[in-house]
């Protein structure tokens, strides 16, 4: 995720000029460096998103533990009653229980996927806001190339680092991000990642 968002905030602004004979002449690069990992860790929006994700994760964990407890009790009851059932009845009950267990596992997986997708949506929005904030700072400082710190092996001049002003501008621009309730996400098809309900076309009548 961090690598994906790091690439999202990299921008190179090239100013093109032409000589009298129409020959292209590129300007010398004026570089600014942004530590996107730090921003994704410390920005107000990122912190709010992680809090929301953890809130849903805790809620889901409680639900899962409650259902697991019920399923274990049902499994134990079935084992205790086996001697009192015919093989046919036991097989029917066992098949029903296995279906219930499989359904439970599918729902747990679905909850996790929905939670991950909501988190990814919010972090993508933050990444786009970092991109915009970095662009604003670059214009203010006459910078024509902005690079992510994670892509640079060595920084000789600390003055090239514009992380602090970018973080300040991001916090002003986007102090919080709406975290969509994972339960409101819908799938467009069984194999697709969850998508926002608003993005799903209504069923034809």
Number of strands: 7
Task: Kindly name the structural category.
Answer: mainly alpha
Beta-strand proportion: 5-15%
For the largest beta-sheet, the strand count, sense and barrel status come to: 3 strands, mixed
Give the overall shape.
rod-shaped
Span of the ends, CA to CA: 40 Å
Explain how this protein is built.
There is one protein chain. This protein has five helices and seven strands, in the order H-E-E-E-E-H-H-H-E-H-E-E. With 205 residues, the chain is mainly alpha-helical. It has one domain (2-7, 27-177). A three-stranded mixed sheet has the order 1-5-4. The chain has a two-stranded antiparallel sheet with strand order 2-3. The chain is rod-shaped and about 90 Å long. Mean pLDDT is 83; it is low at 7-22 and 196-205.
Task: Outline the secondary-structure elements.
Elements: H1 2-8, E1 11-12, E2 17-18, E3 24-25, E4 31-34, H2 36-42, H3 44-81, H4 87-141, E5 145-148, H5 163-173, E6 185-187, E7 194-196
Parallel strand pairs: 4-5
Antiparallel strand pairs: 1-5, 2-3, 6-7
Main features:
205 residues; 5 helices; three-stranded mixed β-sheet; rod-shaped; disordered C terminus; single chain; mainly alpha
Short précis:
With 205 residues, the chain is mainly α. It is built from five helices and seven strands; from the N terminus they run αββββαααβαββ.
